[in-house]
Amino acid sequence: MKFVRDSVHGDLQLDDFEVKLADTPEIQRLRRIKQLGFTYLVYPGANHTRFEHSIGTMYLASRLALNLELDDETHSLVRCSALIHDAGHGPFSHVSEGGIDNSHEELTSKLIKESQLGDILSEKFSVKEILRVISGQGPLGDIISGELDVDRMDYLLRDSYYTGVAYGIIDVERLLSNMKLENGLILHGKGVQAAESMLLARYFMYPSVYQHHTTRIVNSMFRRCLAKLLEKGVINPQEIYRYDDIDVIAAARAEENYVGEVMERLDNRQLYKRVYSLKLDEVDHPEEIFQMSPDSIEKSEAEIAQELDVDKDFILVDVPEYPTFHEMTTPVSVNGDTVMLGDVSNLVRALKDARFNHADLCIYLPEEYAEQALKINFLDYLDISH
Amino acid sequence: MKFVRDSVHGDLQLDDFEVKLADTPEIQRLRRIKQLGFTYLVYPGANHTRFEHSIGTMYLASRLALNLELDDETHSLVRCSALIHDAGHGPFSHVSEGGIDNSHEELTSKLIKESQLGDILSEKFSVKEILRVISGQGPLGDIISGELDVDRMDYLLRDSYYTGVAYGIIDVERLLSNMKLENGLILHGKGVQAAESMLLARYFMYPSVYQHHTTRIVNSMFRRCLAKLLEKGVINPQEIYRYDDIDVIAAARAEENYVGEVMERLDNRQLYKRVYSLKLDEVDHPEEIFQMSPDSIEKSEAEIAQELDVDKDFILVDVPEYPTFHEMTTPVSVNGDTVMLGDVSNLVRALKDARFNHADLCIYLPEEYAEQALKINFLDYLDISH
Amino acid sequence: MKFVRDSVHGDLQLDDFEVKLADTPEIQRLRRIKQLGFTYLVYPGANHTRFEHSIGTMYLASRLALNLELDDETHSLVRCSALIHDAGHGPFSHVSEGGIDNSHEELTSKLIKESQLGDILSEKFSVKEILRVISGQGPLGDIISGELDVDRMDYLLRDSYYTGVAYGIIDVERLLSNMKLENGLILHGKGVQAAESMLLARYFMYPSVYQHHTTRIVNSMFRRCLAKLLEKGVINPQEIYRYDDIDVIAAARAEENYVGEVMERLDNRQLYKRVYSLKLDEVDHPEEIFQMSPDSIEKSEAEIAQELDVDKDFILVDVPEYPTFHEMTTPVSVNGDTVMLGDVSNLVRALKDARFNHADLCIYLPEEYAEQALKINFLDYLDISH
Amino acid sequence: MKFVRDSVHGDLQLDDFEVKLADTPEIQRLRRIKQLGFTYLVYPGANHTRFEHSIGTMYLASRLALNLELDDETHSLVRCSALIHDAGHGPFSHVSEGGIDNSHEELTSKLIKESQLGDILSEKFSVKEILRVISGQGPLGDIISGELDVDRMDYLLRDSYYTGVAYGIIDVERLLSNMKLENGLILHGKGVQAAESMLLARYFMYPSVYQHHTTRIVNSMFRRCLAKLLEKGVINPQEIYRYDDIDVIAAARAEENYVGEVMERLDNRQLYKRVYSLKLDEVDHPEEIFQMSPDSIEKSEAEIAQELDVDKDFILVDVPEYPTFHEMTTPVSVNGDTVMLGDVSNLVRALKDARFNHADLCIYLPEEYAEQALKINFLDYLDISH
């Protein structure tokens, strides 16, 4: 039995088996993976890590398991799944996903199988079952990776705590005490308002934190560096889950020319400037933006670079993520019927449109070329009808 | 004008000149220096940096300056001094001080003089005056580096926030609004209780955080690595303020043998064990503990290593810091007289003894040798009368 | 100069003139008026008073005045207006408004004119001007009584703090630092998200707190008692602002029969039961619900009482307030143009519909008659087409 | 099963039996008893009640019971004891104790026996056993009424929350998880620091809140009113637990002359002034202060009144409570031995002296007589050697 003091949830308890899991190099590595990548360049307090998030998620999973009255073994399975669910994350969390073909869930699966993590887990559980829970399959899958999962609850609270942005505060108590487990998690009608407020928390955190325009610039800068390091074989994409943030920064600093220089800019916070922003409602077919292929993006970058007479790596075309709202489909039990959250809450429906409108395609380049870039009509260089 | 969102104090404002200072590589580097070194291995949330602490200190300094009704120029001087006061810190903050001959105040002074930080400062201020304020000289010196300074207020609050240890909560409002500036800062009698509580905050934070026994182990392990890197010339002690945490970890990982191996232990949290603890009240002349010279310590380590037949680098004799209580001498204004805090508060006097008793000399070594070390009477190997 | 410790905002400062105002019996009375009436029967912590809210509002008004760079005299006018803005509130705040013909703004005006509050104010200000600010007129009127006013900011934060319902947390910093004063307050585009989140805070606080179904029951019970006390002349409606919560409860306890009995029920939390709820979307002409006259409601109550063979005072038909959204019309400055918040935020538009749907007409009666009431088709007794 | 939202601890759960207890008039009355009496005249947020404190104490008792691994029945006994432990408190909590011969524990016992509370309790428990737990007898007695009991933990946290004074923050987690039950509660050595910090919290809360000089004035004023009401038979001391704050204020307002006038002063915050303060260390035999009999105090008041030619009821001689430190004797388990907290912590020993020195005897009277009172040498009128 061991206690870990968490700044968000207080004293968290791990049993001996969980301590053994937490003490593997695979989980300890998460102490050196920042939860929000380079967001600390925007919010100086955002230095929190996947490790804290992992034990925080375990704690919330455990509280939900208690409410659902799971038997001891299942409870333990859920706890351990939560503890290791992010083991496959690459350096700087989601920021490193761009250049990698596999999802972090797939990488977690691969990692577990080939590391001592898998050995330890199989002392007590079926590894296959753990992987199902982590990847959101089966009735227990909703707990860690569903529409209203404890992973999301923890990161909203935690990101809010460390950035100082109050929008992420959610009523975890109300959510956890209004769920029941049937074929998956079902929310009781009494929890609808708490669920609405959790969606709103996400809605507000997107432009404030996750898609803050400066966050997007630094992440784009870093992604290009990482792509180069992968291309050159300095970093092995098949083993991305072996590196931590330090490895990648040290590797980038060691590079000459482009990568070394951009890393220095990141270190000194000399960021690229946004010279163009295209909102979805400014074009006739916004879906074309999300459909742009990597090749098409690269081609646009090359042409803009040529026009400005700079190296093409200096041009970063940043296509927004498609704003998903899986929470819309959360099953809700109302007067005995099971309906979808989107059906009982017109606030939730409104959010879908509202958020869609926030997204924009942006173009960034070094400050020294920003002025000459003003002459360009960027839309002409993008494969988007206009 | 720019706003930075701080998780502890909220929206903090920087004017254009301060933004220029903050944007220098010297201040940006502080984003990559952890405030509490390796304490994150004990408290997983303790990843906060000298950068946040610097702007937080600037904020508190500014509020104090407003209360003291300083003129605009002096107010600005105090703010900028606070912003840069930690620029000379080496990697992992105080942890790197062991191997360096110069204090971090001296290094800050050297750094300012030779970097663009000095150039920018001298546009508006006398650099000499800034250095006086930072090093606690002159009437303004008390603000940032005195008995009850804003530096300490910020770090107690901040370390408390990020570790989740509530002991560091202090009544900053009451302190800041009960000070006046004469030859230095004087506390009004109404603030005595708040000052007592701030001393208690420190008192409690020592064993819980700053001198937590695991923190001491990891810091000792790291210090030995750093000493080796300095010895080998991998790191230049004269320019310690140019390195960040990443540089040192990357350098240590790149080493073969001892340093590389210890770094791997730190990464995987395979920590040395404490095999011996000597409390001050267990010996006749506790002052001898603090008077042990580096040579004497090294000699002890070598003899213990020989006895155990292991490499002498595996033995770490950790002598505690001498517990100082400068706050005892804080001038307090009571009914027109100026007395010392220690004179009006017997709680403060009691703390001195209480804290002295917490300190102990410890010996650590790798877990695999811990058992065989039990046979040793360590006191025989230390240069302490018994 | 005096400091008051507020649990929400910390140490608040009052100058000598403000202390004189605060020390009048009219403002001290607010210490004995609960901010949320009988809501403490639902949220046991909701015992906070109009007094704290008044000094909290003064504090926020002052911070806004600083941001707007108002001159010292205007700043002081705004502070004092905020301090006294609620002086005309009757016992249990809004709950007592039902039986009174005048709005609390009118009563505040009457009270100020006839009490020493007016005398003190006129030492420094034009009372007429103060009344204009309090009632939301003129450019300064928006500060305390506008679309996004500091009154609302304070009560959302405060009600959230004391009920323990986290929904009321809003980003006051962001709001206050993104306003400018022209013909009235205009929000800068950067503050739109904070404004959205403030509207959402209200949206969530309505069903959770302000219109919680139990809150509505106790308030309806109390309103009937108060109506009786006014009818009998025990309480003088023209001087409602002279009574505090204690006066009214003591008066009600002293009554025999109905009022005394209902007061005892309230004391012992033996609440009426809701036997009927009619949502707006269940009828063809929801506007008819809001248009029901007091006579029509009384007639319905009498007929239901006759049908159930009970005294008509036991039947409480509770018509919801019309959900207003003045915030929709908040002027927002976007790229030099001034538009309305409802135009730039489709989230805000969505809230209007969403909230409208929450409202319902309810019927309550004593638990002992609840079962026999099940046989009634209540809609037949209401003047609503169906 | 029912949830109550507590502003301090979050959602608290009551089972059906506990709801039945909580719904009795005896427990509901606690909603109308302020936890800190008239302290709201000093800290405007201090309007919290014995009701919230009772369910908060039940919650902490329950968490401790879980840690102690009590069986279900004992756990339930402890919860219910905590819920009702304050049922015998008179109006304004401790403030009303002065004029009553019985302790609030005795009154709780009397109340339980003669009310439906006793009937309900005896459905499930032995009332005798409940009374033993509440009055701190037997091994379970330490939980609610011991050296480090949950009653105290709750009120420190709660009083801190509502006054805004941060000193009351304690590490409840650490305390609750470091106790074991033998003949009584024993603290594990790991909890010593948390226990120290809890004692310090009390130490700081005394002068800031509980014995704040203005709090002492208003409490003294009220006590004299209450004494008169008891003397006149308006309030029955044998049934003090039937009255709430409202009853007593209404009764006092209804009085003519002295009581009515003092009540009006309290309502309008026109407080008596302190004209004399005698610190313990200013006299040779400080114990004489605590030994002053009611008669001796009354005699002093009469003589001072005569000297000033005012009614003797206007003179209030306020003798401080003797500062007790039962926590000194908390049993602590250190390396297998059980010792007392005062033995392992010299901080705790220091507190005893420190707090003793805070206490002083004070004399208050109406402001209009304050100036003429300056001529008096009050010590001559007190039965204290000098």
Walk me through the structure.
Four copies of one chain form a homotetramer. Helices cover 52% and strands 11% of the residues of chain A. Chain A has 386 residues and is an alpha+beta fold. In chain A, the strands form three sheets. Chain A has a four-stranded mixed sheet with strand order 3-4-7-8. Chain A has a three-stranded antiparallel sheet with strand order 5-9-6. In chain A, strands 1-2 form a two-stranded antiparallel ribbon. The first copy, chain A, has two domains: 211 residues, Hypothetical protein af1432, CATH 1.10.3210.10; 133 residues, Growth Hormone, Chain: A. The mean pLDDT of chain A is 92. The radius of gyration of chain A is 22 Å and the shape is globular. In chain A, helix 4 crosses helix 7 and helix 5 crosses helix 6. Chains in contact: A-B, A-C, A-D, B-C, B-D, C-D. The interface between C and D is large, with 38 and 37 residues.
Salient structural properties:
homotetramer, 386 residues, alpha+beta, Hypothetical protein af1432, Growth Hormone, Chain: A, 2 domains, four-stranded mixed β-sheet, three-stranded antiparallel β-sheet, 19 helices, 9 strands, globular
**Radius of gyration of chain A, rounded?**
22 Å
Q: In the CATH hierarchy, what is the architecture of the largest domain in chain A at level 2?
A: Orthogonal Bundle
Measured by residues with Cβ under 8 Å of the partner chain's Cβ, the largest interface is: C-D, 38 and 37 residues
Oligomer: homotetramer
CATH topology type of the largest domain in chain A: Hypothetical protein af1432
Share in helix of chain A? 40-55%
Shape of chain A: globular
The helix/strand series of chain A, from N terminus to C terminus, equals EEHHHHHHHHHHEEHHHHEHHEEEHHEH
Enumerate the strands of the largest sheet of chain A in spatial order, edge to edge or round the barrel: 3-4-7-8
Structurally, the number of domains of chain A stands at 2
CATH superfamily of the largest domain in chain A: Hypothetical protein af1432
Mean pLDDT of chain A: 92
Classification by helices and strands of chain A: alpha+beta
Number of helices of chain A: 19
Taking the alpha carbons of the first and last residues of chain A, their distance comes to: 63 Å
The description of the largest β-sheet of chain A is: 4 strands, mixed
Poorly predicted sequence stretches spanning 5 or more consecutive residues of chain A: none
Share in β-strands of chain A: 5-15%
Number of strands of chain A: 9
Keywords (chains A, B, C, D): Hydrolase
InterPro entries (chains A, B, C, D): dGTPase-like, HD/PDEase_dom, HD_assoc_2, HD_domain
Domain HD (chains A, B, C, D): 50-156
Protein name (chains A, B, C, D): HD domain-containing protein
